[in-house]
Design a protein that fits this description.
The structure holds two protein chains of two kinds. By secondary structure, chain A is of the alpha+beta class. Among the domains of chain A are: 119 residues, Trigger factor ribosome-binding domain (Alpha-Beta Plaits, 2-Layer Sandwich); 112 residues, Chitinase A, domain 3. Chain A contains 17 helices and 14 strands. In chain A, a hairpin with a 2-residue loop joins strand 9 and strand 10. The radius of gyration of chain A is 36 Å and the shape is elongated. Chain B is α+β, with helices and mostly antiparallel strands. Helices cover 27% and strands 36% of the residues of chain B. Chain B has three helices and six strands. Chain B is globular and about 50 Å long. The mean pLDDT of chain B is 91. Classes of the chains: A alpha+beta, B alpha+beta. Chains A and B meet through helix 3 of A and helix 2 of B.
């Protein structure tokens, strides 16, 4: 149906007047639109932190509004109209809030893109972005956002970095030691009626006092659990004069067990070191009254058929072969890790640049979280973290700075070498991560789909891993088996 | 006597009404059953401050519609009185 529009005299084909207005307005703004109607001004706060003033012209916002409207017109369901036929003003009234939200989002995205792409800055992350502004079509708006930028720096020559990984050769001595360890693990403990010697196991009871007062009296009942192992014990097993036992136990007591046989009673004093774990015991002398109730000798099993059978081996050679394989695999892994560590060390030592604050802060939180989880799994109480909070933060910040620096350098290498994360890399990374997290892959993927930032993080990890692989491949390995640089 | 402000129940905003307003300068209204051309004209002129050129009035018949809650039964969609007014050229009513 072709009818002249009463108001404008234009011929519109089955399109209402308002629609014509909007469409013509849109085309006219497009035609007259300057090449870039978004202006970005940069103000320096620090080397890595900048404030960007992004000015968006009224026409730009109008254009976006028209686009948003067009989307809504296409799919809006309004009673009295077929889908896609409702006029603009009806849509505007009905979906005012949604349209404003969509426009805000669209313009904010534009502002973000412009800030990131058009300011000649390598934006690392956006620190602050006020996106609660309601943009109005035709009205110019200036938005300020604070960003952290990746500092400019020259990459060192990263091809052929000299690395000296530890040797992967396994010596016979190491194999023998491994067998010895296996024997010790499977040792028998036989009760003997003689004085305890080094290496024997002794069942002892002891009670510690400081100037005649028990440790519980000295330090209070409520803290008794912390000192429990150093206060008293009933019928506990100690390995006589063993270095390992001394690390966690009472060194003087463990040494003093030598030469005492079943039923022996004696006293021994121990002065705790100045750097002892428990502050209250540092430098204090505790007197222990000890009673030996049993002495057992460690009898190592002979390397015979029974011993081999317990290890599911046929011959000694087979066992040695197996140990050799294990040790070799472990050493290779260690060498690989060492290479990576050395490359990271080299890169981070050879360039200096200021790090983006937000990245360091974010990474510090991550590292701190990781340390806390690890320690909690080891059974460290939460109060301990509170006590050493500042120390923990400082320590985490140090690690975070190193990590962020490495990440920035590797990201630059990846960019220069055009290393990209392929679909299959990401897939295998997802499978690995799921296995590590001990969740079924499907569930893990569903989790990832919910949170886009997790995918990005994973992608980043894969990229950095690939870059490091590339550097290892290119590295100049200095133990005589250097691989040719490609 | 009905007060002019009570004559118009609501403006009808449908595809057909929008079409008519853009191409014929005509506007559709749902009016009370007691309304006639004269009262509608007065009401519109007063309420929208426009000049009405012509008023057409018709009774929309009630419709039988299938009842969605009771299968196989029909419900009744009530009828109403519709007024179609034509404005003087150049004048408009914002209908949204």
């Amino acid at each position: 149906m072709k009818l002249p529009c009463r108001r404008t005299g234009e011929i519109a084909i089955a399109v209402d007047r308002c629609m014509v207005d909007v469409l013509s307005a849109r085309f006219s703004t497009r035609k007259n639109q300057p090449i870039s109607s978004v202006n970005v001004t940069v103000n320096d706060i620090s080397d890595t932190r900048k404030t960007l003033l992004v000015t968006v012209s009224g026409e730009e916002i109008s254009t976006h509004e028209a686009e948003v409207l067009k989307e809504y017109i296409k799919s809006a369901r309004v009673p009295g109209f077929r889908v896609g036929k409702a006029p603009v003003n009806v849509i505007r009234q009905r979906y005012r809030k949604n349209l404003q939200e969509a426009l805000n989002q669209k313009v904010a995205q534009k502002v973000y893109e412009e800030a990131v792409n058009n300011s000649d800055l390598q934006v690392y992350s956006v620190v602050e972005f006020n996106n609660s502004i309601d943009y109005k079509p035709g009205e110019e708006v200036t938005v300020d956002l604070t960003v952290d930028v990746t500092p400019a720096f020259e990459l060192p020559d990263y091809k052929g970095i000299a690395v000296t990984p530890p040797s992967t050769e396994v010596e016979d001595k190491e194999i023998d030691e491994a067998i010895e360890r296996l024997r010790r693990e499977r040792a028998d403990f036989k009760e003997v009626d003689r004085a305890a010697a080094v290496g024997d196991y002794v069942k002892v009871s002891y009670k510690g006092t400081i100037d005649g007062k028990s440790l519980a009296e000295e330090f209070g009942e409520e803290r008794a659990h912390e000192f429990r192992a150093y206060a008293s014990a009933d019928n506990t097993w100690e390995e006589v004069a063993s270095e390992e036992a001394k690390e966690f136990g009472i060194p003087s007591l463990i040494d003093a067990l030598v030469g005492h046989s079943k039923g022996a009673q004696f006293e021994v004093s121990h002065t705790y070191a100045e750097d002892f774990r428990l502050e209250e015991l540092r430098g204090r002398t505790v007197t222990y009254s000890v009673e030996v109730s049993e002495v057992r000798e460690r009898i190592l099993p002979e390397i015979d058929e029974a011993f081999l059978k317990s290890l599911r081996m046929e011959t000694l050679e087979e066992l040695k072969g197996r140990i050799l394989d294990d040790l070799e695999a472990r050493k290779k892994q260690e060498a690989e890790n060492a290479k990576r560590q050395q490359i990271i060390q080299f890169l981070s030592n050879s360039v200096e640049f200021p790090l983006p604050e937000s990245a360091v802060e974010g990474e510090t939180q991550n590292v701190m979280g990781r340390i806390m989880v690890e320690n909690m799994q080891r059974g460290v109480a939460e109060e301990e973290f509170e006590k050493h909070k500042s120390q923990l933060h400082a320590q985490s910040a140090e690690i975070a700075k190193r990590d962020v620096k490495t990440q920035i350098i590797l990201a630059k290498v990846a960019k220069e070498q055009e290393i990209k994360v392929e679909e299959q890399d990401l897939q295998s990374a997802v499978v690995n991560a799921a296995q590590r997290a001990r969740t079924p892959v499907d569930e893990f993927v569903r989790d990832l789909q919910k949170d886009r930032s997790k995918v990005l993080r994973l992608q980043k990890q894969v990229l950095l891993g690939k870059t490091l692989d590339f550097l290892v491949k290119e590295a100049n390995v200095q133990d005589g088996v250097a691989k040719p640089a490609q | 006597m009905i007060h002019p402000e009570q004559i118009i129940v609501r403006q009808i905003v449908t595809e057909k009404a929008t079409e008519a307003s853009s191409h014929g300068n005509q506007y559709y209204f749902h009016v009370v059953p007691e309304a006639n051309r004269v009262t509608v004209k007065q009401a519109i002129e007063k309420q929208f401050s426009v000049d009405v050129q012509k008023v057409n009035i018709l009774n929309v018949k009630p419709k039988m519609k299938p009842d969605r809650r009771q299968r196989g039964k029909f419900g009744r969609k009530p009828g109403y009185k519709r007024a179609i007014i034509r404005l003087k050229e150049g004048q408009t009513i914002d209908f949204a």
